[in-house]
Amino acid sequence: MFFHKKEPIHVVNIKEPNPRFAQLLLEQFGGATGELSAALQYWVQSFHVENAGIRDMLQDIAIEEFGHLEMVGKMIEAHTKNVDQTDAYKSTLFAVRGMGPHFLDSQGNAWTASYLNEGGDVVRDLRANIAAEAGARQTYEELIKLSTDEGTKNALVHLLTREISHTQMFMKALDSMGKLTEPFFGNIQPDETVDIYYNLSTNGTQDERGPWNAEPSFRYIADPVNEVTKG
Amino acid sequence: MFFHKKEPIHVVNIKEPNPRFAQLLLEQFGGATGELSAALQYWVQSFHVENAGIRDMLQDIAIEEFGHLEMVGKMIEAHTKNVDQTDAYKSTLFAVRGMGPHFLDSQGNAWTASYLNEGGDVVRDLRANIAAEAGARQTYEELIKLSTDEGTKNALVHLLTREISHTQMFMKALDSMGKLTEPFFGNIQPDETVDIYYNLSTNGTQDERGPWNAEPSFRYIADPVNEVTKG
Amino acid sequence: MFFHKKEPIHVVNIKEPNPRFAQLLLEQFGGATGELSAALQYWVQSFHVENAGIRDMLQDIAIEEFGHLEMVGKMIEAHTKNVDQTDAYKSTLFAVRGMGPHFLDSQGNAWTASYLNEGGDVVRDLRANIAAEAGARQTYEELIKLSTDEGTKNALVHLLTREISHTQMFMKALDSMGKLTEPFFGNIQPDETVDIYYNLSTNGTQDERGPWNAEPSFRYIADPVNEVTKG
Amino acid sequence: MFFHKKEPIHVVNIKEPNPRFAQLLLEQFGGATGELSAALQYWVQSFHVENAGIRDMLQDIAIEEFGHLEMVGKMIEAHTKNVDQTDAYKSTLFAVRGMGPHFLDSQGNAWTASYLNEGGDVVRDLRANIAAEAGARQTYEELIKLSTDEGTKNALVHLLTREISHTQMFMKALDSMGKLTEPFFGNIQPDETVDIYYNLSTNGTQDERGPWNAEPSFRYIADPVNEVTKG
Amino acid sequence: MFFHKKEPIHVVNIKEPNPRFAQLLLEQFGGATGELSAALQYWVQSFHVENAGIRDMLQDIAIEEFGHLEMVGKMIEAHTKNVDQTDAYKSTLFAVRGMGPHFLDSQGNAWTASYLNEGGDVVRDLRANIAAEAGARQTYEELIKLSTDEGTKNALVHLLTREISHTQMFMKALDSMGKLTEPFFGNIQPDETVDIYYNLSTNGTQDERGPWNAEPSFRYIADPVNEVTKG
Amino acid sequence: MFFHKKEPIHVVNIKEPNPRFAQLLLEQFGGATGELSAALQYWVQSFHVENAGIRDMLQDIAIEEFGHLEMVGKMIEAHTKNVDQTDAYKSTLFAVRGMGPHFLDSQGNAWTASYLNEGGDVVRDLRANIAAEAGARQTYEELIKLSTDEGTKNALVHLLTREISHTQMFMKALDSMGKLTEPFFGNIQPDETVDIYYNLSTNGTQDERGPWNAEPSFRYIADPVNEVTKG
Fold it and tell me: Superfamily assignment of E19-177 in CATH?
């Protein structure tokens, strides 16, 4: 059962409304990396996760993300509501769609559940969540770089901060299952090719190497064209 | 520059064609967790990644995923091509769309780049890739459980295996940057709320606790309704 | 700020799990007429509505719809979780996507914000909401007709009931502005064609007539081919 | 059977071509609130509506909407065709997609049938249509405010006018069934919660009240957190 | 300006209603290769085509396609309306969405203007139309093969026939511009690589050859790996 | 099995980076007429085409298109990577999504497999491919007209050139089957209406005529309203 208090979870205080920036902010309201994606992904996962503690964590964080969605919505409202119908406003999608937030991204695309990654296994879910937080953090960084209003920046830094907090929580949860640094999970045993690295993209001379294809963790196949297709 | 050899990267040998199973296989051809998603996500990342070694790794794995896409396509072809126009075939989407693979998932949805998670930072990209691999692995496990043909199962186990291999590679790359177990990345410092855990979903009695909200890593706010909105 | 209690807003008590019916239920979880559409539409409207009372009403109802979304999610969970991996389960999308709810409709389409109708004017919003409730009610009626489990039926009847309650609220709000039975709203005066009815689809003999094209409310143009294009 | 005359249903006479405005006009050609949405929604409803008169009304209005779609298309053609390849043109989507209308909205999104609301019951359909008209009217108002060309404005005022005319027709039809001011319709009786109002969003002090939650029409639950989850 | 007569452009006479077949028929109502795609593609092209004769042809055929859309709609209506709520009906999307046509394909996907191919040049448009007709014809063939009702088959054969008729018209139009068998069109001269054939997919032994890579029309590059990247 | 060499298939040499032009270039990376569409359409067709030579041709061209996709990606990388965070960059989608290519079009829409036209018959496939090439060529022409950088123009002219080359190959393949200038293909015989032309869109006076509705190829029905519906 959901409840709502009108006071936001964190202060939102916009000094200089800027409808063009409001359009960029849509990225975190109705965009792929936005708060709706986070809230719905974590919450829908909670229905199939068996571990009661992790289920509760997913719900706690999901509800916080709804609160963040509200914060972003309030920022967009403030950046579009108290402005004259100036040229800045007229050049945004708010001019035809109306002021305030919409479930669109900064390019005007409607939010879609295709953004979500969830289902069937809690390890998959938690890895998906760390990725979702990374995307959200990245977008907040870009928005902070593009923002000129202090109140907006402060709110965005808080929102970015909380993505790191959530990442920490998801990492702790994965670690409690021994799956933070272990690639394997689930019930199907891999076959004997699990440690092969195929050098399928070549530069004609010496290919780059790194820990991601070094022995003894990996067997490096330097010339798969001949080694695979002829062996 | 791309090249192609007609021999697949791994043997595909279907004994008992089953068009209904072929429709499920579409999930890994044109679905969210499928090989096209993996191939395109890793490959498009390689254009903006600065580190030459990781850029090369992304290309190597992307090219392998194109080869896996081909394997899944060949499986779907084999499961739909050499069958009479039986009732099994007629009850699938192949009856109206034609035999062989299509860039659809098992529910008939067209593949969309909304499935991809990439951009702006290599840490974000690599975390997104670990999540993509987890989703792919999960779907392969479900397909293996649903499959009754040995040749199909063997090919699917190989494909599942390689998702684990790639996860290992992405983890090694993240670890080489110190970002496998570290939540923070990027250029914006978090604010002072970074270690707070908000208990926003409650069960009326005693809420679950775990390493994801335990001290000293986290400050646990048990009653945010009162503590946040009134402080 | 959002909060959550684990107890649902209304009892959900499924006796006979049926994964095929669970797939139909997705229509009201991640479908066009579902609870997510309602919750997000009303809530996003609240950001631009000036009237404080109607703004509050939109938030009250939106939060209730989130609670309804949770109820539908719990029903889907119950219809897919406590079942053997029987043929019924295997023939549903849960077999490849995992048990529990997903933000898909019964045909497997990802939820999209294209379903929403909102923006710019409270009259438009409230009319959109009455339409949304009508769509939701219609789908619940079809689901009730298709259901064989008493607990499921009872929960669905409650959800259908509340759509009627919300319709009543939206109608009262429109009526308080004098816009429940008045076509006109907004700031642009219509031109002189406002009372014309064009009989553009004809059956060769006598066309149907009704209050929607009767005098004195309407001027009926029986033969627009000649009257419009030649006048 | 459809027929077409090349003369438009209403005069379109553009004096000052403006490709940027043409892009905004796409909102009513290939956008959610546009004429294609209206035409197709009313027309597809006519196939399942039993009442011959209302069926005919839906067809008459649908055909008029096709004529309006043509008018909007002609406006877009005029605003993009007779212009030099100036900077204004180059900054629009017409520069890469070609002059003239496309089934896109002002943000470049392809039209989708997800915009439509129809099916199963004529009351649901008619309520959906009143909502569709309200959305269309709202967008026309925004476009009229943004337009500087007299001929364009006149055509847009006509189109806005006709949305009001159609609203009147749909209201008359609903009224003829007694469903214009009556929330209930269909075959399922609501349960005993039908008159409850849940005050789920609170502001900490005194919540707003209005006819939408006033007695005797409604029973107001001021504190659902305690009253619902503990009763 | 559009007009409509209730009599369809060709007889539709269904003897044995079959809701499952009705779902397949949706492919040609709201699917990629369906009549809506054809009608809207040709009609939207007519706004930017300069040649008055071809513009008129596009409109004539577009209007016929609207009439065909109506025929398919009437077939779907007949296959879903006069049937009991039998198991056949219950297993289709009509059970939750309501009887009669919807702008969905046989897999339940909403129609999208992403299916359309048009813009900027009449040669491109006409080639796109020949392709659209080929897709439509192919789907009709599959539907005819799957149909067991004579009346349905007859109507489908007529619709398939007309796709061939339209193909003939589009070919004649292209031929009148000398572009039916000439690859080149437009204003940009190709560079010197125009006659090269790159043998980029190899089978290890002898690659297939044909008129599409034969001299003197083409210069065949047998080993582009070495010839391109090293030259 | 796929392979990759880091050297592109054709030189890409950008002198004057322009992020706004980079956004337009996205049209051919992740847009409807772009290289991903071409590569995936031809490649997926190859799985169901029986003729070994044409199957090989489809693979050869598909692999070349992947190489072209890489070229466009490298152009976008060059136009966004080596630029200061200037206003030009900030006004593009790269400012929030990150530099380098993304699978979006110039309007920010995610690529979708709904763009593809393929399945069931090689004639349909090849006609679809000629249409795809025509769309790609058209977009390249618009981009060349909008480009001011010589290196960019040269690369684009090469890409446009190859679309003509591929058109030539597809035409040769169709011609080898006798289907380049023959409307009919497949297994269903058309009915007796195959040569009728319906004059459904009229201008009140004298309609345009041309080879597409001239005798003896066509029987021209000048007044279908009366001739069809009354005969």
Answer: Ferritin, core subunit, four-helix bundle (1.20.1260.10)
